[in-house]
Amino acid sequence: MSLLSIENLSLEIGEATILKDIDLTIASGEVLGLVGESGSGKSMTALTIMQLLPEAARARGRVTFDGIDILAAPEEAMCRLRGDDLGMVFQEPMTALNPVKSIGEQVAEGIRWHTGANRADAEARARAILDRVGLPEAQFPLSRFPHELSGGQRQRVVIAIACALKPKLLIADEPTTALDVVLQAQILDLLRDLVDESRMGLLLISHDLAVVAEMADRVTIMRSGEVMEAGPTADILSAKRHPYTRQLAEASTHVPARANGRAVVQAAPALLEVSGITRDYPGRRRGLFAQDKPFRAVDAVSFSMPAGHAVALVGRSGCGKSTLARMILALDRPTAGEIRLMGETLAGKSEAQLRGARRNMQVVFQDPYGSFDPRHRVERLVAEPLHLLDTQPSAAERRDLVAQALDEVGLAPADMDKFPHEFSGGQRQRISIARAIITRPKLIVADEPVSALDVSIRAQILDLFADLNQRLGLTYLFITHDLTVARAITDEVMVMDEGRIVERGPTREVLKHPATPAARALVEAAPDLEQALAARMRT
Amino acid sequence: MTAYLAKRLAIGLVTLIVASAVVFCVLEIVPGDPALLMLGMNAEPEALATLREQMGLNQPILLRYLDWVSGMAVGDFGRSYTYSSPVIDLIGERVLVSLPLAIMALVLSTVIALSVGIFAAARRGRPADTMVMGVAQVGVAIPNFWFALLLIYLFAVWLRLVPAGGFPGWGAGVWPAIKALIMPAVALALPQAAILARVTRSAMLEVLGEDYIRTARAKGMPRRIVLWHHALRNALIPVLTILGLQFSFLLAGTIIIENVFYLPGLGRLVFQAITQRDLIVVEGVVMLLVASIVLVNILVDIGYAIVDPRLRTRR
Questions:
Q1: CB contact under 8 A, A97 and B234
Q2: Per CATH, is A263-282+294-538 categorized as 3.40.50.300?
Q3: pTM of the entire predicted model
Q4: Which residue of A has its CA nearest to B225?
Q5: Residue A124 above 70 pLDDT?
């Protein structure tokens, strides 16, 4: 008998139908991958099993866990299940822990609640599980607070909370999406070990086919609240019988068509030259007079980028890539070193002197929604950089420029009178690209421009970047921790580690034969759909 | 933590020094001749000269300021001209009324506000929430002196449960003294509680939407425990801020309320001193009020550090 079985589950919130006739089962010791794009209902399925749905939600059908009818179970029964036999790990580790309670308190709390153990016993068990998830006592005493830990460490604490009482089923909702590839690989290994150790069932929710291919025995593919296809992972993902499965698989390995005649531009003069750039941050205050040594975020980095090139800057979280990008964009001043854009020095200039340079370099951020003022119309948002022009366009000219920019990114000129919330995530990213190209810049710095997007949208945006590179001769600096993005649209890759650029070369070369340990770690940790499937077929 | 505390104390000290300079400027320098201000335009020249001598007005301004500040530092607030007794004695007498009143009002408003705010947040959108918040809305709008009159009419005139005003002194026994302070404390506390309850409710609702609340629920903790153990402590941060700000309004409120209830407290003392132009008393009491506000703010800052571990290591 299976551990969890869901039959004909339907879910409505108010008038909206969220889930329609969902069926799925998980046995002990089995990993089920639940795949789908945002809005497909995978998180809602998980919250239904946990009975942590919004109050307005109405579920119908049958959910049986370990012989218990979940939908009919009273709240007290659910409280006994949650955190004991049924654990859950969430997507965003940075906010998943209570900032005012120590990690020891947060892990021990559930243990005490469920087992009635006294404080000392509960703390001893909390200690043991924290050791188990890779947070040893020496560096991570129980008295640590969440803000003293990194994202990956916090996710380990969340896993410790969920697994403290050896649950029969663990639900992990995008547990590694917010982490860099090396941390992702570590967390996935940990989950895998926990499954093997105690024959725990694992419901792994992810939008990343490669992750699911590596981890899951069986996979269920969802789209807009319905199950599209379900079955053994290797079978489903290699046969790709269902058109939607095929679409997902193609989108996640999508490589935009680009001309490969890069030799011509190689000879072009350098658009951006960075020499010996360093950035120190003052150390943390330890007491009234004691202070830590300054922290060197970027350490004597030098490189140059020819015009028309697309370069990826890859590295783990905290390696200094965003700090470097901020200095290139003149949003932060380097401690030492020099940056030249089209031969003009940026460091030490006033905002007025930087106008010309700002016109020639624009930025695209990860979260398009967060970088728009929700009260402004698209016309105003896209036209914003126009104040950098020396002669201000008239209102009519302004609308023409905005219309042209929107057209270039594949949106209708009529969209300029709408507000950002009227657009989907992919369309919003198009708007932020339109904003970036309106001043006809030479250089675009893109900080994780597609990592917040679903795979199919992401393929479209990558196509758009490739297309603009060809048509407008744009030079790109892509900052990313995702190697598939680097592989898809960049000519060259620079690997950054602890503030330095440790390796640089043609993208294909570096990703195939990484020379330095930092680059190797990234490449090895990156999940790969084809390789994972090949490995599954062999066994 | 020590660095944090030292910084708060230093800020408090600087505030006191700046406030003393401002008070000194406004009351002793801007009027031109404090003695003339105190005695009025028709004062005898001899009386003026004597008072100037007595107040040390013939000395240079900086010296007068330093004398005044160093006097206060050792508890010498000067001598009242109208009461002809040391200001510190007057204050000492009145503090016995005002301090218990302020503490009662503060405790009352905090207790009411927190329980009402948490109650409403836990029942968000239900009739109980709407009703309680409606009452709070009215409470925000009611001026405390008018509310005080209502209380007098209801409890003193009509039900005859408590005295309508006056203060029997602590010598008459603890209970009669407390009884005399109940209505003034309620009149001061309720409008404040209404504001604070709304802040508590919105802070709680915001915190209840956070991811870590979901984590706690996924741990199996029932809603009630999550509310008290996880949400409340996080919601206290904005509540503490408002509480600190409200304390100064509470002190200002005592001046009106003590007059309405005819209580011999600091508020009445400063009110009378102003009408009688007794500058020395005004200066002393104002500085005392400033010091108490500085102290409360330091307590609020310490409260932050207790509630939020992130503040203990930062700065």
A1: no
A2: yes
A3: 0.82
A4: A113
A5: yes
